[in-house]
Amino acid sequence: MANSKFEYVKGFEQATDWVLLPSTYVVIRVDGKGFTKFSDAHGFEKPNDKRALDLMNECAKAVLREFPVLLGYGESDEFSFVLHKDATLYGRRASKIISTITSCFTGNYVRLWPQFLPDTPLQYTPVFDGRAVCYPSLKVLRDYLAWRQADTHINNQYNTCYWCLVKAGKLPAEAQATIKGTDTSFKNELLFSQFGINYAQLPEQFRKGSTVLKRPVRAVVKYREDGTPVERDRVQEVVLHCDIIGDAFWQEHQQLLGLAD
Fold first, then answer.
1. Does residue 47 have a cis bond before it (omega within 30 degrees)?
2. Does position 37 have pLDDT exceeding 90, yes or no?
């Protein structure tokens, strides 16, 4: 249809295909749609199902392999992917970036499901939505990621208390009333005094979420004739469960990630 009289319709696409602001960090956040219902339908362990979280992490690693993503941060049914402020992926066209990253994540979720939940048939198709947000500086980007990690802690602590109470026999409404409006200290004391749980000793994956990035990993690439291994550094996707609010993570990985204002 090139150079035909109908080609003018392409102008309508261009009018609605906005380009992300230049020289800004781009975050693509992929979020599960209706995952409370989805997790109930598939019998996810409450408050955290490690199998499902590991599946999310593997999907994030697939996104990092496919696209020039600096890092991803995920918790529960969401993952945020960071593109460098100088990224030129798809000419920074929002619709193209959002749709391809979201579909890559979703497709891998379905493809990898049997690997992580082999005894749980997929009852219906999972759905993820995606959005793009531009952040003007590294400080603001860090504040965004800090917000997501702080949210991870708040939600996990609340949900851990809630499900402990429900599993102990309280009705959902009673459990909600018990912890409504309470602070961190109250929840920590509730978990320890009533259930013997030290919140600080729960898996970091649950408390801090998952950070996915690429870095050199020493790996065996072949074996010599005498059977001894030959090792080389290979860049691989790795998953960390660590604090990303403080400075230590950023100081350690700043050069690797190429993050600077």
1. yes
2. yes
The 10s digit of each residue's pLDDT in 225-247 is: 888 888 888 889 999 999 999 99
In the chain, what is the greatest distance between 2 CA atoms, to the nearest angstrom?
76
What tens digit of pLDDT does each residue of 162-214 get?
A: 999 999 999 999 999 999 999 999 999 999 999 999 999 999 999 999 999 99
Place of tokens 């690429």: 214
Ranges assigned E (strand) in the chain: 25-32, 69-75, 78-83, 128-135, 210-223, 229-240
Look at the block and give the residue holding tokens 């193209």. 96
C-beta atoms surrounding 217 within 10 Å: 12
Inter-residue contact 161 to 187 (CB < 8 Å): yes
Query: Are 57 and 212 a contacting pair, CB within 8 Å?
Result: yes
**Measured between alpha carbons, how far is 67 from 239 in angstroms, rounded to an integer?**
17
Phi, psi of 123 (to 5 degrees): -80, -35
Q: Three-state DSSP class for 210?
A: strand
Rounded CA-CA distance 133/69 in Å is: 14
Q: How far apart are CA 184 and CA 159, in angstroms?
A: 12
**Under DSSP, is residue 65 helix (H, G, I), strand (E, B) or coil?**
helix
What pairs with residue 128 in β-bridges? 32
DSSP class of residue 18? P
Q: Residue 112's Cα: distance from chain center in Å? A: 16
Name residues whose C-beta falls within 8 Å of residue 186's C-beta, 6 or more positions apart in sequence: 179
3-class state of residue 89 by DSSP: helix
